[in-house]
Design goal:
With about 100 residues, the chain is mostly helical. It has four helices and no strands. α2 packs parallel to α4 and α3 packs antiparallel against α4. The longest helix is centred in the C-terminal third of the chain and has 22 residues. The two termini are about 25 Å apart. About 20% of the residues are buried.
Length: about 100
């Protein structure tokens, strides 16, 4: 059951944000999702921890979609997304190394 939930959430995350030209942000989000799944595979993350981290990734993805709703991202919005991804990256690291 947990595996199905994680897989469904991953599908949403990987398909959600291909609208505007943000390949660096999109690649970073994909790498972070892969880090989460690698943590589950290696036993560093429980499925519960992974679900929380994926939920955080989904929130960043939703924020990106909200910013892209007008067709482009301003420098300020890119900065907000980078900061959000930095926080998520730190959370992933901390959960994998606790």
């Amino acid at each position: 059951m947990k595996t199905i939930m994680l897989a469904a959430l991953a599908a949403v995350l990987t398909s959600a944000a291909a609208q505007a030209d943000t390949p660096k942000l999109d690649n970073r989000q994909d790498r972070q999702v892969n880090r989460i799944f690698n943590g589950v595979d290696s036993g560093q993350l429980s499925s519960r921890e992974a679900a929380k981290l994926l939920k955080g990734q989904l929130q960043v993805r939703k924020l990106e979609d909200q910013f892209k709703s007008n067709g482009n991202l301003s420098n300020f919005e890119r900065g907000v997304l980078r900061d959000s991804l930095d926080r998520q990256s730190n959370r992933i690291f901390n959960k994998k190394h606790n």
